[in-house]
């Protein structure tokens, strides 16, 4: 079963509370999503491999380290996943970015795919799937499945807020995928929104409501 890592930090709790607040505007919301994403990016890359190389500081010669593992692919689930792209690119500027478009049907709550474009060599890359919200898990599971169909074998999922239901679904359907989240919330409500959550992440990011 994939492991779940939760960022446990007082500053994260502080920032998530600002995200939750319905009076927080889109600009501040976007900026906090980016900040938290940067921390998630560091956490999700703890197992990345390094190689040594020689460097010279102004003081002496020493050993430097550089990332030496597979190249990286970042896959935001549209639309809200776009809010996390800048944070990841800041940490991994050489990463390639693919996009998968999914929206939840308002009646069935099942994800509907409307776009898919990923780097050609995605099957050789470590792929980070990003979406602020993991609710029922339907969108994440379908996105991961599509990437597997395209040959991807190394996948991680990064979310800002997750519900237990979504984590369970990903663990059951994709036991090879580790999940990194900033906050585990209580449950889903009858409309499949995360409680207490932060509402519709896409609308909050882009001011569409
Ligand atoms: C939201 C969110 C996830 C999905 C999570 O997207 O960004 O993609 O819901 O829900 P799930 O785990 O139950 O699938 P939404 O469908 O609202 O589309 P949007 O990003 O275009 O607003
Ligand atoms: N998608 C969102 O944006 N928010 C939720 O709470 C659930 C799904």
Automatic annotation (TrEMBL):
Keyword Glycosyltransferase: yes
Activation/inhibition comment: Allosterically activated by GTP.
Keyword GTP-binding assigned: yes
Needed cofactors: Mg(2+)
Keywords: Allosteric enzyme, Glycosyltransferase, GTP-binding, Magnesium, Nucleotide-binding, Transferase
GO terms assigned for molecular function: GTP binding; magnesium ion binding; uracil phosphoribosyltransferase activity
Name of this chain's protein: Uracil phosphoribosyltransferase
UniProt source species: Anaerococcus vaginalis ATCC 51170
């Amino acid at each position: 079963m994939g492991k779940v890592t939760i960022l446990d930090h007082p500053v994260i709790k502080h920032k998530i509370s600002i995200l939750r607040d319905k009076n927080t505007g889109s600009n501040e919301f976007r900026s906090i999503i980016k900040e938290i994403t940067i921390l998630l990016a560091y956490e999700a890359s703890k197992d990345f491999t390094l190689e040594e190389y020689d460097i010279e500081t102004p003081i002496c010669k020493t050993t430097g380290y550089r990332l030496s593992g597979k190249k990286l692919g970042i896959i935001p689930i549209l639309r809200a996943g776009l809010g996390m792209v800048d944070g990841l690119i800041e940490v991994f500027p050489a990463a390639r970015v693919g996009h998968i478009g999914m929206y939840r049907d308002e009646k069935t709550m099942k994800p509907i795919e409307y776009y898919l474009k990923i780097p050609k060599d995605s099957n050789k890359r470590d792929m980070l799937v990003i979406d602020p919200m993991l609710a029922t898990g339907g969108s994440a599971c379908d996105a991961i499945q599509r990437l597997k169909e395209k040959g991807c074998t190394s996948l991680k999922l990064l979310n800002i807020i997750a519900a237990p239901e979504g984590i369970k679904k990903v663990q059951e359907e994709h036991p090879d995928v580790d999940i990194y989240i900033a906050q585990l919330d209580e449950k889903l409500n009858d409309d499949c929104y995360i409680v207490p959550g932060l509402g519709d992440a896409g609308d909050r990011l882009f001011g569409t409501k």
